[in-house]
Design goal:
Layout lengths: L1 H52 L1 H17 L3 E6 L11 E5 L5 H11 L1 H17 L9 H8 L8 H14 L6 H25 L5 H40 L1
Antiparallel strand pairs: 1-2
Length: 246
């Protein structure tokens, strides 16, 4: 009995290390790079220009909160997909939940961090729709060469893709309220894989299938959305450092 418990607690910790921790790290990197892109766009466009020209990103940000509220059965009080306020608020999703309900509390993590996952998923979908299929197949060197080719950027779809990527990436960053909401649910989320492994350990190697699915999801997010956002953030920061040195 004791060996069963310790073995499955170990499996739960492994599931956390392969699943939750990489997800949180990717989310953190995307968050930081999104802030850099946001600050750069505000410097280029001004606060008012940034607010209205990146409206699609605000809508995706709030829709992501709304969708996860529905998934985790929170009561939605008010939704404003785009409503700029003098205090800098651009939109909001107000929701309530039962603090005694563990499912609701776990949902707080996903609801709070929803703009990261909803934004990355939307970027994946838009990339698949607007960019040619050849960019998603073949060897990486050929894909990079095609991305920088003049033929790709002679199409309006590529420029629409570029605009939407900037607009969405600028609003992937989380507000203080979003971070508080996510922090409320992360403790329950950490305990969940360990409890599942202990309770369901007798079924078999189901955790291996789950780990493989999480790895595949992470790979897709990294290729199609997280890497462009992270690279964009790094380029913006390097540009600022070089401009200061000059």
């Amino acid at each position: 009995m004791w060996s069963y418990i310790t073995e499955n607690i170990s499996n739960g910790i492994r599931l956390l290390s392969v699943g939750l921790i990489p997800v949180v790290l990717v989310g953190y990197l995307v968050q930081e790079c999104s802030r850099s892109i946001r600050q750069w766009l505000i410097a280029c466009l001004g606060r008012t220009g940034f607010t209205y020209l990146t409206m699609p990103g605000v809508v995706i940000h709030e829709l992501s909160h709304w969708c996860f509220c529905l998934i985790f059965q929170h009561k939605i009080v008010q939704v404003k997909l785009f409503a700029p306020q003098n205090d800098g608020t651009l939109g909001m999703v107000l929701h309530s939940y039962d603090s005694r309900n563990i499912f609701h509390r776990i949902g707080n993590f996903f609801i709070g961090s929803a703009p990261v996952w909803g934004g990355l998923l939307t970027m994946c979908i838009i990339s698949r729709i607007l960019l040619p299929e050849s960019l998603f197949s073949g060897v990486p060197a050929a894909q990079i060469a095609e991305f920088f080719s003049t033929s790709l950027w002679s199409c309006w779809q590529s420029w629409l893709w570029f605009y939407l990527m900037l607009a969405i990436a600028a609003h992937i960053s989380l507000s203080k309220a979003d971070l508080r909401c996510a922090a409320d649910g992360i403790g329950f989320l950490i305990m969940l894989p360990i409890l599942l492994c202990v309770v369901l350990g007798w079924i078999g190697d189901w955790e291996e299938a789950l780990i493989s699915a999480v790895r595949l999801l992470l790979w897709q997010l990294l290729i199609y959305s997280a890497i462009p956002v992270i690279c964009g953030g790094i380029i913006v920061r390097l540009g600022r450092i070089l401009s200061r040195q000059q």
